[in-house]
Each structure stands twice: as C-alpha cells, then as structure tokens.
Amino acid sequence: MRILESGGIYKNYFKKRVLAGIGINIESGKIVGLLGPNGSGKTTFLKLLTGLARPNAGSIRICGTEVGYRTKELVSYLPDSDFLYPWMKVKDAKKVYSSFFNDFKSEKFDELIEFMKLDNDMDVKALSRGMKEKLGLSLTLARDAKLTILDEPLNGVDPIAREQILGAILKGFNYEGSILITSQLVNEVERILDEVYLLKDGKIELSGDAEEIRNIRNMTLDEVYREVFAC
Amino acid sequence: MIKFDQSTPIYIQIMQKIKADIVSGKLKGGDKLPSVREISESFKVNPNTVQRVFIELEREGITYPQRGIGTFVCEGPEVINQLKTTLAMGYTKRFMDEMIELGLSENEIIECIKKVVEGSKDENT
Questions:
Q1: Which residue in B4, B37, B41 is closest to A191 by CB distance?
Q2: Which residue of A has its CA nearest to B48?
Q3: Do residue B71 and residue B14 come from a single domain?
Q4: Does residue B24 contact residue B85 with C-beta atoms inside 8 Å?
C-alpha cells in the first residue's frame, strides 16, 4: 500500500522559496531517509506532512487522504524541538499521549522506555537532552501509526545513545507502516534506510534505493552525501 | 554495534557472519535462525536488508524456511563442508591477491606461510 503520495510541492515563507516542486512517495514497510544540510527544507516538508503548515501548491496524500484533520491519526510525529512541559513526569506525558491518540500502546511505550533506561516516575525537567530525545521517541514510536516521522532523532545525542535510539527505532518499527527520518548524521542512519532523498535548496537532488545507490556509485551514502553537498 | 566494511553491501556482510557461525559450529544443522526482527535489532540494520539475507541464504541452499515457524539451517555435513571450502578458498584468494600485489613470487608466499605456521607451533609448545 502507498502510505505517502506527494508531488509538485511549493512552499514560500513570504518571498523566500523553501520548497521548489518536490514530491516523495513512500510504500508501506519502508524506512526512508530525508537528508540534507541545514536550511534545505527538510523540517518545512515535514510540517506540511503533519498539517502544521500548508503548501502554496502541490498535493500530499497520506493513505489516500489529503492532509487535514483526518490524517492526524495516521501520522505520528517527533518534532526536532522540545515539546514536553517541564512540570510533567514521564507517566504524565504517557497519559497525554494515550488520551490523545487511539493507537497509542501503553505496553509498547513501557517496553521502549525500559529499553532506553528511563522510568515512569522521572521528571521531564530533570532529563538530559539525550534522555528527552529518547522519551520523545518512545512516545512517538508507541503509536501504531501508518506514517511515523522522526525529525533529527540523533541530534545532540552521544554515540552510545545514538546506537540505542537506532535500536529503538527498529524495535518500534511497525511493519505495516513506514518511517520517514531526517538526519545530518548520514553515516549513522544509512544502515537502517531502504530509500533516500537528498534535499538541496528545496529540490530533490538525488533519490533512490539506498543499496542501489551504494552499488552504482560504489560509495557509502555518507560519501555520496559529501559529494552532492560539497560545493 | 558491529562495524560494516564500506566496500561490500551490508547484506553480504551479514550473510558472511551467519556462514562463519555455521562453519564454526555456533549454528548447527537444524538450528533455527533468529527472526528478521531480532537480527535487524541486534545488527541495527533495516529489516528489508535482513529479509534479503534470508532469501539469498535460502537460494544458496544453506537454510530452509518453515512456514509460520522460522528459518532453519540445513542439516548434513555436505552443507558445512561446502561452506567451509568456499569461505576458505575466498579468504585464500584474497590473501594471494594482496601478496601478489606486494610483488612476491609463489615460492616466497609459500615460504611466508610456512614461517607463520612454524611460529604459531612454537608458541603453542
């Protein structure tokens, strides 16, 4: 089944053009990487998918439905910024999620935070940056959403925690759905990706099957990335 | 997290790891392989990559699937012996290529091997 179908998307912030006619399609059961430097339009594209911003032109369908209030229950989104209130405990965040989303699985959440070595009684304000990232990821992955969007889940996290996070992503991966993940740490994420899209100045510079790109160019994705964005 | 060599596709490297486990006896004939999910989580690789590993292992006649139960290592010494030979020949060929690149003649290479073998015998006694 096609989870995401999009094409001809333009997005301007006033006079500044951020996305210039891009389109990404995702089939179910795939982990797809959206890679590009700062300011290439990754987060803007994700905001369009989640309905937090609207495109100036183009269409985006999730499981056949145009993005709107009805697609909110299909999409689980981990933003790249803090989104939890500091006064909360981990279990409060869990309560908010389980009352907001029908597909939130408490047992899956408990399993994920145990794997991440977090505890239901911890205070959000006492969590380090990496631990907050792990909590956000656990909340996001505990939903059985069709499309899971992870914006920079590895940012500002130490190498050991990164490995844990990659493990959690694979643990939480719902095989009937898909994951769209952005990252600048190409080297770290490339082994979990099926397909990649390289975004440059709001356009797709290169896209395809990860293994195929590696094979044809005889380079790792990290090297391909460096070549595409070198100048 | 195991490091993958950059020049070989990941699925081939995972296949080599499983084959090595079979040859060394860590995995025996009739043993059940871990599930796609388990391998994907422990190697931190995409589940579709692991799926490909399973398809290729099956195609090479090393494993067989049991619908609804899992994937098993084929039984019988022929499988292991053949694997051992192919792996050993592969490593030897790679070794030879590197030595030839250094400009050594066949006799010199054999001398080198003898020295190393003698050396390890001395260590053991």
A1: B4
A2: A194
A3: yes
A4: no
Search chain B and give the residue with CA nearest A33: B46
B59 and B14: one domain? yes
Q: What is the pTM of this model?
A: 0.84
Q: Does residue B125 surpass a pLDDT of 70?
A: no
Give the type of residue at B88: A
Contact B29, B36 (CB under 8 A): no
* Same-domain check for residues B88 and B66: no
Q: Is the Cβ of A191 closer than 8 Å to some Cβ of chain B?
A: yes
B81 at the A interface (CB within 8 A)? no
Within an 8 Å CB–CB cutoff, is residue B8 touching chain A?
Answer: no
* Global ipTM: 0.78
Query: Residues A196-205, buried b or exposed e (16+ Cβ, 10 A)?
Result: bbbbeebebe
> Mean pLDDT, to the nearest integer, of B32-56?
92
Please report whether residue B36 resides in a domain: yes
CATH of the domain at B59: 1.10.10.10
Q: What is the pLDDT of residue A35?
A: 94
Q: Could you give all domains of chain A from N- to C-terminal order, each with its CATH number?
A: 2-229 (3.40.50.300)
